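Final report, closing paragraph on structural work. Over the funding period we assembled a curated collection of sequence-structure pairs, and we close with a single example.
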Amino acid sequence: MKKASDQISIKDVVLDFSEEAQIDYWATKLGTTREIIKSAARACRNNTLDQIVVYLLENSKLNKADLIQPY
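Its predicted structure, as stored:
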């Protein structure tokens, strides 16, 4: 059983775009594609997952309902 302290916060995640598996993992978790995540990172000039998610939400590329589940 996972403890609350074992859960990863998106504030703690810095994406390494040379690691395709990591990008694929988060794309799947967020219900989007790796291309959209890469495009969002370029557009917001940030590689932290929380900033990418904010950008995607503000630009209607991500549904808030997708974020209800813990990551």
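The mean pLDDT is 84. The helical segments are 20-30, 34-44, 49-58. We thank the funder for supporting this effort.
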